[in-house]
Every structure is written in C-alpha cells, then in structure tokens.
Amino acid sequence: MTDQVASHYSENPELADVIARNLRSAGSDLKKLTTADFATVDEFHIRGRKATLELAVQMNLNANSHVLDIGSGLGGPARTVAETYGCQVTGIDLTQAFCNAATAMSEWVGLGKRASFKQGDATNLPFDSKTFDAAMTIHVAMNIAAKDKMYMEARRVVKPGGIFAVYDILQGEGGEVLYPVPWARDPSISHLATPEQMSALLIGAGFKLRDVQDSTEESQSFFERMTAQMAKTGSLPVAWRLFLGDDFPTMARNQVRNVTERRIRTVSFICVA
Ligand SMILES: C[S@@+](CC[C@H](N)C(=O)[O-])C[C@H]1O[C@@H](n2cnc3c(N)ncnc32)[C@H](O)[C@@H]1O
C-alpha cells in the first residue's frame, strides 16, 4: 500500500532538476528565489500558502520551536513556517523523490539549515517521544488507511501541551468521490474519513480538540479560479502537472465537482497534545 502511494506521487525521480529547469525557462534566477516565488509549485494542497499560514498562526510558534511536518511533500509548508517564525522544521514523507527535491529547494532559498527532510512513514515515525513543540499535517491522511496509528504517532512525538494542526480533505455528504483526483487515480489508495470520524480519531489518539474549521466554500472558489485560469491561458500549474502527469486537467475538473457537490470537504482541526 505505501509503495503504491509513493509511486502515485513520484513519476519523476529528478523532480528538483525539472523544477529548476521550469523556473529558469520562466525567467527566474534561482539565486534570487524566495519561498513566495514557488508557492504555486510547492504548497501541494487546496488553498495553497494561505491555508498553511492560517494553520501555523494557531500553533503557538516562536523562533525556538521545533515543528514536525508529517507528509511534507516538496517542503512548501515546512519552508513557509520556518521562514515566517524563524523556527526549525523537520519534514517526513513517504516519497523519497519529494524529500530530495524538498532538500534542494530549501537550499535554493537559504533555508537549508532550518528546514530538513527525511523519508519515513507517518504511521511509524522515526523520532523519540516528546521530541517536537508542535506538529502539522496537510492533505496527507487521505492516503492513509491506518489513521488511528498516524494520530497516535503524532501524539507520541509532540510534547505535552503542544499543538497538532491537521488540514485535510474529508468525505463529504454529497456521495462518492469522482476519480482521478490529485491524491489517487482510483479508490485503492484513497481513504477519506468524515468530519465526525476525524474528530473521534483525534480524540481517540489522546488529543483535546481546540478548534474545527470547515473551509469547503473557500476551496470551491480556489478550484473555480484554478480551472478558469487554465481555460483562459490554456496552460496548467507547472509542478502539479510535473508529478501528476497528463491526468492533471481531469483531476482538477473532478475536484471542482467533488467540492461543489460536497463529495469532499476541507476541514482543519487544532488539537492539543
Ligand atoms: C498532497 S501531498 C501534500 C504534501 C504537503 N503536505 C503539502 O501540503 O504541500 C501528500 C503527501 O503525503 C505523503 N504521504 C502519503 N502517505 C504517507 C505516509 N504514510 N507517510 C508519510 N507521508 C505520506 C505523500 O508522499 C505526499 O508527499
């Protein structure tokens, strides 16, 4: 199952090189890049960098914080948090190609010392108990069947009183998800929980739920804007196409229907360890 998930995401093992080539051909000087310059490339979730910042502001972070990002992808959320709060972020991700690209991209923007990445599985974290001041996970659990294990591991590695911030795609009340979607080409690697199941899982792992925010309407506008832009320019968001391949336009169209018909919802959970 984890092999299937990793190969869904990593069609291209040389991601950093391909991203660098695309940025150069779009006129960017890699030596002058900032995290904001590749926000459309590396914040691989609905509502992008804005959603990361909304989550981070609730995590009680300061320059001394050490944060874990579970399912860190290309490292966009980790770099955004490291840069905004001047803190240390460790990312863990199943997909080795993403960890390699995340490491290279952090060097490009001078964040190599503050954002580091390691390959690993969210359901079996390679860290000692009570290591992190806070943890976050953005759009990862939809690929994980054993969410109970994932959240128990998060609870184990966060210090007591620390925040665990979750922003995920959940099963809505509007019916079955239409595939392909960016996290799965078919239901075999898709495991969506309902909002009620998520709350129960997080509480079951030992967290206290401080806040729950549903951002589905804003997510609908996000996809409407993205597909309108694709129709207008005839081009696709570069990086998403790079690692999701030619299915991406179909995935984006399906996501408009999935979110409009409330087959999916986007919800954040702020939990206290
Ligand atoms: C949609 S991407 C989101 C990446 C990142 N959180 C972001 O928002 O930019 C989902 C990520 O979850 C990772 N992932 C899926 N299952 C995982 C697991 N069991 N353990 C760790 N990472 C996992 C995938 O490799 C992929 O990088």
| Ions and ligands | S-adenosylmethionine
Work out the helicity level: 40-55%
How would a textbook summarize the main sheet?
Answer: 7 strands, mixed
What is the average per-residue confidence, as pLDDT, rounded to a whole number?
Answer: 90
Low-confidence stretches: none
Bulk shape: globular
Total helices: the number is 11
Kindly summarize this structure in a few lines.
With 273 residues, the chain is α/β, with parallel strands linked by helices.
Which short descriptors sum up this protein?
273 residues, alpha/beta, 7-stranded mixed β-sheet, 19% strand, globular, binds S-adenosylmethionine
Overview of the structural elements:
The chain is of the alpha/beta class and 273 residues long. It is 42% helix and 19% strand. It has helices spanning 2-9, 15-25, 39-42, 48-56, 76-85, 96-108, 147-157, 195-204, 216-233, 238-244, 248-260; strands spanning 66-70, 88-93, 115-119, 132-138, 158-171, 208-214, 264-272. The chain has a seven-stranded mixed sheet, with helices on both faces. Helix 5 (76-85) links the parallel strand 1 (66-70) and strand 2 (88-93). Helix 2 packs antiparallel against helix 10 (238-244) and helix 4 crosses helix 5 (76-85). The longest helix has 18 residues, at 216-233. The protein is globular, with a radius of gyration of 17 Å. The mean pLDDT is 90. The site of S-adenosylmethionine has 25 residues, from helix 1 and helix 5.
